[in-house]
Amino acid sequence: MPLALLALAISAFGIGTTEFVMMGLLPNVAGDLGTSVPTAGYLVSAYALGVVIGAPLLTALGSRIPRKRMLVLLMGLFTIGNLASALAPTFGLLVAGRVLAGLPHGAFFGVGAVVAARLVTQGRQARAVATMFLGLTVANIVGVPTATLLGQHLGWRATFLVVAGIGLVAMAALTLLVPQLPRERHEGLGQELRALRDRQVLLGLLTAVFGFAGVFAVYSYLASMMTEVTGFSETSVTLVLALFGIGMTLGALVAGPLTDRALRPTLYGSLAALAAVLVLFDFTVHVKWAALATVVVLGAVGFMTTTPLQMLVMNKAQHAPTLASASNHSAFNLANAGGAWLGGVAIAAGWGWTSPTLVGAVLAVIGLAVAVTAGLLDRGGPGASRLVAAGSERMREAERVG
């Protein structure tokens, strides 16, 4: 694998850390800025809002910027957003800093996925994209727990200063390791928007919204389930979340080769497995060892959906995959918000702490139904799945000529 993928993974590590660390720092932020924990929870939503808005907006604005420069600029904005969060004197400005930090998230992964796919030969594109996503999963194992402990001992501002430092390291790695990619004649905003209207792309985005919502219907309340139902202490929650991150990493490692070999079957299988594991979790959550094992498997099958979904929208967007790829991350964040909301509705309705597992299973089944429908409607033929690879072949041909 090219060293450029390491630069992308470092960037993903920083993004993943800042995305999820706020959940563990809410009491610290609330106490320091004189607000309640539920109000501080808006900081999680603020980041997600930044992702949903920034993914299509920044991708569109940067459609004519060379991809390497675009990646560096996006990480620069990410660094500024985290620095602004660290220095925010009021809660309102911290919310603004979180939105700013979230703006480049989707656009970075959208551009980064296209770059990763074009750095490797045909048949290895999904593995390259999954390698970039490994940075996101490792963040849940190492970055988030470490940053949370740092924030609890040195103050939450120290956490965002460190994340800003990771952003600077990522910018340097991108500058040094990512090659200049030749632009293609057909690239441009108009072509990207036309590609985004493709029926298969829209169905892929809809699959992401429902399928991944099943994961976050449970993940959002995982800590409460473990303490209220399984009987773990609050100090053990960090271990539980780390196990979920280990599962995510395993899922990313497996998803790459499987997606390269059979994209749609991998997507169908991961969504079906996700629904089954969520139903199983409703039973295993009552036994400590079984609950921990299920958490690992849940993280694995949940994250196994991301690589095939990413490759699907890139392939079906034909010659203009960047905006579709970025919009996929808007879909993932809509899934985060929607899944968390529906899981909360179930708990508030008095259905119990384990009710989000069944809500998540229903969402995963809906996502699977959409994916299967898209597969039955697909008349693009196998050639459509080679479009990203064709871009990588053209890049290497340009390098040989140069």
Concise summary:
This protein has about 400 residues and is mainly α. The chain contains 17 helices and no strands. The protein is globular, with a radius of gyration of 20 Å.
How would you portray this structure in words?
The chain is an all-alpha fold and 402 residues long. Helices cover 83% and strands 0% of the residues. It contains 17 helices and no strands. It has helices at residues 4-33, 37-40, 42-61, 67-87, 91-118, 125-154, 156-177, 189-196, 199-219, 222-230, 237-261, 263-284, 288-304, 306-316, 321-348, 355-377, 387-401. Helix 1 (4-33) runs antiparallel to helix 3, helix 3 crosses helix 5 and helix 5 (91-118) runs antiparallel to helix 6 (125-154). The two termini are 22 Å apart.
